[in-house]
Amino acid sequence: MNKIPSIKTTARTAGFIYLLQIPLGVFGIVYIPKTLVVAGDAEKTVSNILANEFIFRLSTVSAMLCALVTIAAAVYIYRVLKPVDKRHAKWIVLFTLMVAPITMVNKLNNVAVLLLLKYPQLSPSFTSGQISAMVSISLDLHQYGLQVAGIFFGL
Fold this sequence. Notes:
Layout: H1 7-36, H2 42-51, H3 53-81, H4 86-106, H5 108-118, H6 128-154
Helix pairs in contact: 1-3, 2-6, 3-4, 4-6, 5-6
């Protein structure tokens, strides 16, 4: 027998999925970057990332999972709000769904950091100071990308 879940069950599922974003986002988007990135000191940041490469990679995975959970949350939030106002529910889903690809593409900045640091043969003509500067730029771009995603997440 195929039973349609009640609005209460759907709302609880939506809330649970939405809450999953908290640990994933805090770990991958807030805690690890604040722990490893030293403002104004590119060399220290580079050494932190190299010393904690696994954690840096794990933060990227966590942020990607957070983006996927955001998509699931959008689907369930739509199911909850559709009976109230279908048009508004669509707008909420649209803005929420914009966050996921922005976050995923933004994580390419972290991949660039790892490429610069782990594969110096890709950029043999750069000095270590120049590589540190490029790492700093990539991390700054990542922060700006988070701000753009935050705009849509807030909407």
